[in-house]
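Bug #77: duplicate submission created two jobs. Keeping one. Sequence:
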Amino acid sequence: MFNPSLTGSFFGLRPILPGIPHVRGNMLGLTTFTPEVCQKLTKAAEKTGIATYWAGPMPMIYVTSNQVRRALVREAHIGSCDQQSAELLKTIVGNNNVMCHFPSFMNIQSDTYLMQRKFLFSRFTIKSRERLAGIASEVDAFLKEATKKDVNSCNLREFVTELILHTSSHLLGLTDCTLDKIYLDNPGYRETIVKVAHYGISESYDPEFEKKLEQIFLDIFEKNFTSITNGTVDNNLIRNIFASMALDFPKTFKDFFLLPKETQHVIAMNFAATGLGGLFHSTTNTLDLALARLLKNPAKLAELTKLMASHKDIDISSEAAYDKTGPFFPIAEWVLHNVFLYPPFSHSFYLNRESFTVTLDNGTEIVIPSMSFTVVNYIECNRSNEKLISEETFSDNLKSKFTTGDFIHNPQVASFGGSKIDSHNNHSRSCPGAKTSLYEQMIIIVLLLRDYNLTSDDSEEISCEIDPSQHPICSRVRVGTIALKKLTEPFEEESSSVKSSPNM
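Kept job's structure:
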């Protein structure tokens, strides 16, 4: 399994690829994957889009441009996540059951994966438009309740977390007791729910944390047992998980405990990975950043608020409203550019099963060693095309597409499983919930700006800098506070505002 160049890496001095920038590790050759190391690697790869480092005996190829990403991340080199890969991942992460049951890391050939993928892709991609009216209704209900609370302001991240937990409940078929209520009624659950994505993407096995997740699942399962029972494998995630594991759904909640304890735990971790780590986390992170950026940009906030005044009676749950000829295309542009700049996860890892030769755009020919890892920095890859960082040229690129939903397959974007869908990667997997998530964020922003006064007292309190302690999750470092007030009319001249500093 180990690269034959192990001896040369012992002191971290030997470069992996001739002519490619290399970042040295400590005396044992070990480079711990931290934000500081990522900054060094990104700087080293500035001109080439590629740099290397040793993680102990493992050669690591760090990628920061889409051109290099598309050349290196191919099934011919990495294969797909089959049983062998799934077992290797389990060994590497020490049996982290959330990571091992995250859809992208499951054995692509297993019946469990195939059935769950069919559910997610059908419900949230193929039939995404059927979800939008329900999302609009639930967001509207949540916001009305939120403005009834006797509070002057609230934490922006907390507000977004509760809102997305609420909408996610209905998307997953959990309607007896929604996730936001469970989250609010049990303070001990909060830290665990917020942390689940970080645990599921970057941490070693933590049995105590998984016990907490299992308890949260049991609470969700018991309080929503009626709606889950009345659901089907096509509209309820938990029913689908049981069916995908070829298990009969229990007749009563207590019957669940007749299953072997290991099976109970697998079901709970499967739900945590997909329902909390995937669907909830990704939408929460990107919407939180989109609203923070909007509150720090008073001109854009005023522009989009004014747009709502012109189209207050249009069906906001129609996909067409957000396409390039639709009235809400500026909202779509804002959401998509936010996700482009701040993808939910900053990195992905790919094992190179075979050695292969590739020629980079600058003519450099390199030989990638077998059993090395390619590490893709999604943020840098997305931003490697400087023209697309500008809102204007990014928007021009979007207008070449017929629908905003096509964004998730754009080869210039590395936000949704790498957007690897092409002739080289027939089995690669884009995020099945991305389309629904993007439209959900658009609908939320439309409702907030059309019907509410959204303000921040101090824009300096809100930061869009990524919190290094959450790496590789893209979360903001300073969350800030907001005030939300229901408008007496659909639009008021001073509806959405921010007291901003002159430097914004």
